[in-house]
Structure formats: structure tokens, C-alpha cells
Amino acid sequence: MATFFLFLSLLLPSLHFSSSEPFIGVNYGQVADNLPPPSATAKLLQSTSIEKVRLYGADPAIIKALANTGIGIVIGTANGDIPALASDPNSAAQWVNSNVMPFYPASKIILITVGNEVLTTNDPNLINQLLPAMQNVQNAISAASLGGKIKVSTVHSMAVLGQSDPPSSGLFIPSYQPVLKGLLQFQKDNGSPFAINPYPFFAYQSDSRPETLAFCLFQPNAGRVDSGNGIKYMNMFDAQVDAVHSALSAMGFKDVEIMVAETGWPYNGDSYEVGPSIENAKAYNGNLISHLRSMVGTPLMPGKSVDTYLFALYDEDLKPGPGSERAFGLFRSDLSMTYDAGISKSSQTPTPKNPVTPMTPQPKPTATGWCVPKAGISDAQLQSSLDYACGQGIDCSPIQPGGACFEPNTIASHAAYAMNLYYQTSSKNPWNCDFSQTATLTSQNPSYNNCIYPGGST
User: What would the pLDDT profile of 258-305 be if each residue is shown by its tens digit?
Assistant: First the structure.
């Protein structure tokens, strides 16, 4: 596991301040009648650490507004465009000439998604036309001398998986596999990502136990062991992404890159819905961003962060369905933050909190104390506690490269510093040093050399 932090030391800026990260994107949906002008949105995005935007279409006003910002742009064709794109190469060339050529390279278009969740429409004609459409769009891109610069893909629902638990058993639904084999060979040949929409929120809705909520929100929890390989998972996002990786591997395409095209958590919903709240949305998105910034990766794909597009930039007030469908926005239409997920360049790391019931303040303990991990705790559990603690707005720069507490470069050492700092900067109640029963208070000062652990008499 120390190799993860060696990789981190080479690539990761300090966790303490938000900075641009190429793996963080956002979805910009337009099923709304109250969205701000594209020019205002472009300025808003430049005030954040978001480096990529995914559009569901190819709105020229938005593409033009993002010119010369350096923000990567994903544009898409509608499902209804697929038959024409598949049957007529000239239609694909015309689409590229209309939606790419007038704007590129000033507008940094990086990917074209052909259709959205086509396989799960279960429309055999549309499904069979998907690969020819992607091939024709790719040929049009290559003819415009943009091959390799702009990739071509399509986006899938997690429902293409027939099995995902445990992650090592991930498999695509057999009836989809023949089509997927052709799509994946195309993507392997052209270096484009397999784009998928994992939502721990929906997993929680089908299993609303408290321990499942902590698992979904990247909060300290007991973890879940994959019975196939013995790996302990500490969050649902990693489990879902690794299930996709296993499904790709089972078909012989383990090297095709995975892209998370959508993931998010609603901050509001109808009264019958389980899970939507400001606290949970802030915890999910904030802790997800911290997890991505850690560059730890997933158990089956360590040492890198999957490109992840948060859902969504704004609420879409005209979307049908339950109330939660209209409450995923990170920002309001007046450009104010719905909540602080830690993506503003002017803010520090996110400060998501556990969803807890307000309590009467308790007297602080009078014993001397530092919070440290208990003996025998696994690296996976320590990593979960490290991610959580550093996602609460504490200053984790001392355990970053060059920091006084970076050495020894181990998860155990880094987690001990972060867990103690979280405890010292909170209310110093015993439950602030619990971390799912993996930590304990000690009167023995763990400081060493120039690495000073805050604490002592309280």
C-alpha cells in the first residue's frame, strides 16, 4: 500500500486546498427553464476545480462559451440520432462538421458520446445500430484529422450488469454480451473509455440500513469483504466501479479504461424517498472528491483515480419522476452553492459531516489524550478513516510529500496523524475518536522527530 502513497507523492498537490484535478468533471443537463446564461456558467466553472463538463447534446452556445477556458467538453448525440448516423456516413460527417469543427480547438472537445443508456432501452433496432453509428462518427473524426484527439464512446446504465455483488463476480447480462463485445473491441482499438453511471444512492434506496448509508457515503464503517478474493471494500463507489472492471475482465477487455459518466446524491426528494438530504449529498460528493484526490484508486485498479463526472451542475426543474430527480444540483440557478462539496477554488477541502441528530454539548474530557488507531486494524479500514478525516476540512498537508509527518510513508502512520488531528479539532468527545471502533485514546504522545501530534491536556 505504501506504493500508492509513492504514486501520490509524485502526482498529488496538497489535499488542504482545492486545486484543478483532471479527473473531476460535472454533468450539465438542460431539462430546465431557469438556467443561467452559458457565459455565466463558464465563469462559474472557472472558479472551481472542475476540469471537464459533460453535455447531453451539443448546444452551440455552451460550447462557444467554454472556448479558451481549458475546460474539457464531452458532447453527445441523442438516441434519436443513432439510426441516421449508423446508416449514412455522410450524416456522421455532417454532425461532426456542425457540432465540432466550428468550435475546436478553442473549445476543448475531448469526447463524443453516441447515445445514452442505449442497451437498457431494450430496443433491438437501436441497439444493433449503436456500433455502426459510433464507427461512422469515429471515421468522420479521423477524416477531420482529429483522430486520437477526440474519442468516441457511449454511456451505459449499471443495469447492463447482471451480477455486481461481490465486485469480483461482476458480469454483464448475457443477452447484452454479443453487442458489448463489438463495442468494447471498438473502444479498445480507438482508446476510448467505457462510460457508466454508478449511483450508490440507488443502492442505498434498496437497502436503507444505517451501515449501508455509511458505506455509501465514504464514512467510517466495518467494510464488506468480497467473498471471491477476500478484499475488504470500505465504500460502495469502489465496489460498483470494480464490479464493472470485473465484468470487463471477464469479457477479455480489462485494459479498457472506465469512465464514471454520472454519479451523485440528491439533496432533496419526496417524503417517501429514502436518503435525500443536504447532509447526505454533501457527505457523498465531498467524500467522493476527497477519495478521488487521494489517488488511491479502487482495490482492483489501485494508484489512479477514475475520471468521474458529478451529477449535476444545476437542478433540472422540468425533469419528470420523483422529487429527487430535480434536486441533484451542486449549484442553484443564481450561481450560489447548494452546499459546499469542496470544489470551489476559494474554499478548502470539503467539510461533509455525518448525518447525525443534534445533541446537547457535553463536557470535554479532562484526561490527557491523543487519538490513535488500535493495533491490528487493516490498511483498508485505515484508508477509509484517512479519507474521512482529511475530508472534514482539517489540514492534512503535514502528511503530504515534504510535510513533517510524511515519513514513514505508510497508511498506518498517515492515518494516525489524520485521525488524531480530526479528534483534536472536533469536540474531543470519545465518539470523535471512534472511527467505527478502530481508534482509541492514549496518554502516550505519538509525536516523533519534527512530526508534532497536537494534543495533550484538554
Answer: 999 999 999 999 999 999 999 999 999 999 999 998 888 999 999 899
User: Is the alpha carbon torsion for 98, 100, 105, 108 positive or negative?
Assistant: positive
> pLDDT tens digits, residue range 112-160?
999 999 999 999 999 999 999 999 999 999 999 999 999 999 999 999 9
The answer to whether the beta carbons of residues 440 and 446 sit under 8 Å apart is: no
Helix, strand and coil percent figures for the chain, each rounded to 5: 40, 15, 45
Among residues 21, 51, 117, 257, the one annotated as catalytic is: 117
Cα dist. 187→61, 108, 353 in Å?
A: 29, 21, 39
Side-chain half-sphere exposure of 296, counting CA atoms within 13 A: 23
Indicate the residue type of 286: G
The four Cα atoms 364, 279, 161, 381 give a dihedral, to 10 degrees, of -10
Q: What is the pLDDT of residue 457?
A: 57
Residue pointed to by grid coordinates 498529488:
12
Q: Does the annotation mark 325 as catalytic?
A: no
Cell of 432: 470523535
Q: Can you spell out the DSSP letters for 384-409?
A: HHHHHHHTTT---GGGSTTSTT--S-
Share of the chain above pLDDT 70, in %: 90
Among 323, 305, 295, 304, which Cα is nearest to 387's?
Answer: 295
> Taking 60 as the threshold, does the pLDDT of residue 193 lie above it?
yes
92-97 average pLDDT score:
98
User: Which residues touch 274 (CB under 8 Å, ≥6 apart)?
Assistant: 204, 205, 208
**Cα–Cα distance measured from residue 83 to residue 328, given in angstroms and rounded to the nearest whole number:** 31
Query: Quick one: average pLDDT of 242-260?
Result: 98
21 is known as an active-site residue = no
Question: How many angstroms separate the CA atoms of 171 and 10, rounded?
Answer: 35
The catalytic residue among 262, 273, 325, 407 is 262
CA dist., res. 100 & res. 416, Å (int): 50
**Average model confidence (pLDDT) across the chain:** 89
Nearest to 333 by CA among 129, 29, 22: 29
Residue 75 CB: number of other CB atoms within 10 A? 24
